[in-house]
Amino acid sequence: MRATRAPLAAAVGTAALLALSPQTPATAMPLTPDSPATPVSPTSANDAPADYYKDAEGKTGPELKSALHGIIEKSDALSYDQVWDALKATDKDPDNSSNVVLLYTGRSQSADDNGGGADQWNREHVWAKSHGDFGTATGPGTDIHHLRPTDASVNSTRGNKDFDEGGGEVEEAPGNHTDGDSFEPRDAVKGDVARMVLYMAVRYEGEDSFPDLEPNDKVDNGSAPAMGRLSVLKKWNEQDPPDAFEKRRNDVIYDQFQHNRNPFVDHPEWVDAIWS
Questions:
Q1: How, if at all, do strands 182-184 and 162-163 pair?
Q2: Where is the signal peptide, in residue numbers (predicted)?
Q3: Which of 55, 95, 147, 273 maximizes the CB count within 10 A of its CB?
Q4: What is the DSSP letter of 179?
Q5: pTM reported for the whole predicted model
Q6: How many helices (H) and strands (E) would you count in the chain?
């Protein structure tokens, strides 16, 4: 039987507590591997255009999921090379614009120190790309709503494991836990992970040669297009609501890159409305 740890602490990451300085928004344009990360102006919570979610209003369950899919599937795709520079903008450290904040460790690291070295940062697929076998081809494999900068060796420790509670603490990333079939992220990003996984389940519905991604209440899903554990992800969504860093990230992706949003960052209550 898996061990369950104490409830999530109320603390949030430094990024959630910092006010971001206003900047002039950049005009969205195709990203090239050498293009610089351009800051955009911070925005308030739920700062989607007024009519962005109009087709989802008043809906619940499968109808809400279908409506949200129709809204967020309208997006611009990046290549896997373009993801490097996109993450330098989406995950920029608000305390140091030359750095990015790594998902699992919380470490602030030079944005240019990316690559395959053990202490460099690389591109983590929060929905493991082997779950549905979509690889790094343009589409789910390059969707920056679920791609995050992570320490390369911690990324390797997570591997393609499902998300659940319990396990031993990851030595290189205190606060994260893992065992043979699952990974538990640190408290400050538990909700972020849940909302990224559930975004993928709404965005990719088996169209355009992409797999139909769905959450389930299992672990050890292997190559099936499934990710668990849904009951735990739902709990994390409630325990760790969207903070300033996550909301800004959603805005940057919408304003600069893919031009679609993660609806669960704007409306975390929709998780329970769909997966009751």
A1: parallel
A2: 1-28
A3: 147
A4: -
A5: 0.84
A6: 9, 11
